[in-house]
Amino acid sequence: MAEPVVLLEGVRKSYGDKVVTEVLKGVDLRVDRGEFAALVGPSGSGKSTLLNLLGLLDRPTSGRLAIAGEETAGLDDAGLTRLRGHAIGFVFQFHHLLPGLSAAENVMMPMIAREGRTAKAMVPRAVALLDRVGLAGLADALPSALSGGQQQRVAIARALALGPPLVLADEPTGNLDTRTADQIFDVLREFNRELGVAFLIVTHDPRLAARCDRTIDLVDGAIVSDRRRTAEGAAPHR
Questions:
Q1: pLDDT in tens, 52-78
Q2: Which candidate, 175, 173, 192, 195, places its Cα nearest to that of 184?
Q3: Residue 58 burial class via C-beta count within 10 angstroms: exposed 0-12, middle 13-18, buried 19 and up
Q4: Are strands 214-219 and 36-40 parallel, antiparallel or unpaired?
Q5: Domains of the chain
Q6: pLDDT tens figures, 76-103
Q7: Is the pTM of this model over 0.85?
């Protein structure tokens, strides 16, 4: 059996003291290494809350959460930061590149954050990743000189800078035209297939969700459907 990079059991998340609002209502979820899955659901379904928990930016109210085989319940903030740094890459709808840094320097940021300094070996790593996402020759370009699709490619390279087993992508094509969105999707898929990186992609685009190997539907804080696709089409996961 493949190794899980995400494991949730009975995860609940509530907010408020006097008036308690339960956003996640006992979520069970497993994502294995190398999976390529879409998380879909209407606004207010709890997708952002779930993504924050998976990204270790927030803690569950109750339940079990393990990332890359490590239980998170006993970790302090420093432990969560360490685990997030080596196990999770992030891609967002808006690229969040630093405007004063080149493409290569933006890709290097996770490496610098981990090491606490800049090292010469980081440069070829960043340039190689930019080559992999189709930006050969643009390592020295500032974000302002790049198109929206090219900026998102830089963000993907940055997410993969430390070789994480899991990438969380929050509407990674939501700000792009259809053709560019398809190109970005293909880049994500290439890394998934070649490197075995697991992707969990939050999307409102049914076209992109249909191209993923698995679609997880979240409604009112609960998973109501979890479907895998086979050569013959969609098949129930459970």
A1: 999 999 999 999 999 998 999 989 999
A2: 173
A3: middle
A4: parallel
A5: 4-236 (3.40.50.300)
A6: 999 999 899 889 998 887 778 889 999 9
A7: yes
